[in-house]
Every structure is written in structure tokens, then in C-alpha cells.
Write a structure and sequence with these properties.
The chain has 298 residues and is of the alpha/beta class. The protein has nine helices and eleven strands. GO terms for molecular function: DNA binding; DNA-binding transcription factor activity.
Amino acid sequence: MLDLNHLRSFVAVAEELHFGRAARRLGMTQPPLSRHIQLLEARLGVRLLERTSHSVALTPAGQVFLPEARALLGASERASQLVRQAAQRHGSGTLTIGFIGSSTYDFLPSILSRARAELPNTELVLKEMLGSAQIDALQLGRIDLGLIRPSPSPLAYASSCVLREGMALALPQGHPLTSGRWPSLHDLEGEPFIMYSPDSPYMHALLSTAFAAAGIRPRVVQAVSQAQTILSLVSTGMGLALVPEDTRKACFGDVVIRPIGSTPELVAELHAIWQPENRNPALGPFRDLLHRIAKRRP
């Protein structure tokens, strides 16, 4: 295999026809330059240059080899440029992302907007799925990354928290708690309450634990698994509910979202999950983007 440094040395000498000028052009001294030429000639088994104490000239073999050497160096530079461009376009390819519905109110749209700007060569394929379905899809290779609530299942994947958000109180328009001081959990005592069902194990456990810690037994009138459904039921006046703060971005004109009083237990997490052995080149850059955005959110 020909050494590119040897080729550069030969081309410089062939074009300058002077070892001193060629050495200055390459930013080196003459002895290593001469050594490069000698090694190249030894590798090819022919003399490329005729050298005297006063002149340098190309041999017939050198004249034939010069355009080939230039072509080899040009091909090498083009290959380097392609690699650099690929690095600049890091994340190019297709990435399949699973997500839960409650991530679409604010977090996922902000991620998609940033991804379009920062990873323009990445095609994102979105699949709305329950958290449990995402875990199965991840293990089967049907998605590259999932956005789920923390799972009590044994971790057969890598995960990282990308969002922590407080819970807020969702009330039907006109309810007394829509105005005045911030409501607390104790204000829910005796009120009709729409609960997360066990089909949403993380949210169900989060609220159950908070109620138990506060000594409250809510009067549950309905239990459903999705925040969107909960908000729909609240809009009918069926009851109150606790939902992630980001749901205030949902378009329900008959629902008022209010902060709930200081309850450190009521913080919901959203996790990104992926398989560490996944070699999709678009995964790492997208995951890095997730983490950068997560760090900037309050």
C-alpha cells in the first residue's frame, strides 16, 4: 500500500523540481523529504526522479506516475470530505420512536422542533403506544427509542429520565376551586375524582402513594388510563383529576388547570428507553438532543 505522505512528497518535488522549495511547501526539512522519495521508489521498484547536485527531473516512469499520484491524493481528499460531511450530518438515517400520549402536549413537540433544526438528515417515524407496548416493541426491534413513564418491570433496556413535571389539578369550568388560593390535596376530600387506572401502573401508584401519605381517600367515580380521556371526562363535569402540568397545553375550553399546593411526592417522570446494543447511527445524536433539552427544562 502506498503511503499518502510519500505521495504528497513526490508530487511536491515533481511540481517544484527543487527539493528545497518542496520541503518548504510541505513544512518539513529536506532529509525526511528525500527519505520519502526513496521509500516510494523502493515500494514501486522504479526510479521516479533524476537528481543531480544542480537539478531535479522526472524520469519517464515519474512522468507516468505523477498524474496517478495526484489522482490518488484527490481521491483521498474526497473520501476525507465525505467522512467529515457525514460527521457534520451526524444522525442521518431513520429513527423509529415510540411515545405515550401525554408526552405530546409539550415535550414531544419541542423535541421534534429541535430535531428538525439540529438533525435535518434524520427521518423520525413516530408510533403512539402504551408504555408496556413500547417495551415489547423495543425488545423486538420495532422501535429504536421509547418515551414512557418509569416501568416496574425488570430493566431489559437502558433508560434515562428526560422530564420531571409536577402534577396539576384539572377542574371543570365554574368549579369553586378554579379561583382563590392554590388548592391542596386535602381540598379533594369528598370531591368526585377521576383516577388513573392500574392499566397506567406508574401514574396509579404515584397518586395512590400521595393520597395515602396525605391521609386522603378520594371518592373515585371513574378510573381510566390516558390523560386525554381524563381531561375529556373532567370537561363534562364528571369530576376532578390530577394530571401532568404539561396537559395545560391541551385544548379543552371547559377545563381549568391549576397548580396543586406543595406536594413533593407528586412529580411525574418521563423516561427515554433504548437497547444499548442498537447500532442505528441516528440513535446517539437524538438521545444527546433529548438530554440537552432535559437539562434546560426547569
